[in-house]
Model the fold of this input.
Amino acid sequence: MNEAVDTGLLEAGVDALPFGVVVLDHTGVIVYTNETSLPAIQEDIGIETSSLIGENYLTHCRHANEPHATAIVSGLEDILTRDREQFRHECQCSPFRRADDRLIRLDATPIECENDQYAAVSHTESRVSSSVRSKWVLVSVTTDMILL
Done:
């Protein structure tokens, strides 16, 4: 079906998703966000504004001074330069801010629109069960343990 779809309907559909979505231009500047992304991504990458539009996602990641930041920036740059077709990074809690019982998964995919290059980035979070959390604690304090 090639009929044009109302952009309002598309935006409402993306806003209704239960996870954050941002679109980055070829330099890493945020050009689109859905409603779910604003609070989560502001906290996760430390952007302290009422809008994410116009903020450079990669710059905020670089200045986060967190162990996950380098891998995320590298993966997103590969997406934006088309050196990679998909990027996924998973980590316990926020890659940049909170220490709690959440798992964060960041997925990125390249987009081309009217000869311009973009990346769609999603942030999905889930809670970690107490049994998994206790295993993480064991792994973090034990150097010779294998968990099955």
